[in-house]
Design a protein that fits this description.
alpha+beta; 7 helices; 4 strands
Length: 164
């Protein structure tokens, strides 16, 4: 439930450092590029699709998942496909291959119609993972930023707080 300012206060000791979190995570629109809580997400879905039911029934895209398992591990690849390819695929297929070294590889292929709701939900959930620049690099980052700004406008100074 933290916004960028709260996170910046907790991590950097300064809520004004929210811009660094935004920059590091390619956040342009703090309202929609940051993870939405349940109420905000529901309102977003209703505004975009009219109702939750519309979002859940509308197909956003189709996928084909190829999963290969062997003693060496599991590999899974999800590929976006078109409607014709989706319709041509079986719901799922299962096959076992034996490699030249005697190792067995199990391959399972499945298809899925991804609803607009599911797409938006997964996109929103992916925003829960953010990157933070370590506090010990802040002095160097602020110095470099000041240097860049002074090249553009020699009279411009940025305020700096000691962090850490």
């Amino acid at each position: 439930g933290d916004n960028m300012e709260i996170l910046a206060e907790k991590y950097y000791g300064d809520p004004e450092m929210h811009w660094l979190i935004a920059l590091t995570n390619d956040i342009v629109d703090a309202k929609y590029d940051w993870v939405l809580n349940t109420r905000e997400f529901t309102n977003f879905i209703k505004a975009k699709y009219g109702t939750l039911a519309n979002a859940k029934s509308a197909i956003h895209h189709y996928t084909k998942t190829i999963k290969r398992e062997s003693i060496y591990g599991t590999y899974e690849d999800v590929i976006e496909i078109d409607l014709d390819t989706y319709n041509a695929l079986a719901s799922s297929s299962y096959e076992v291959f034996t490699l030249s070294d005697g190792t067995s590889v199990t391959e399972t292929i499945t298809k899925q119609a991804v609803s607009s709701y599911e797409y938006e939900y997964n996109l929103n959930e992916s925003k829960r993972q953010i990157k933070l620049i370590k506090r010990e690099y802040m002095g160097e980052i602020m110095s470099e930023l000041q240097r860049q700004l002074e090249q553009e406008n020699p009279t411009l100074r940025i305020g700096m707080k000691r962090i850490g």
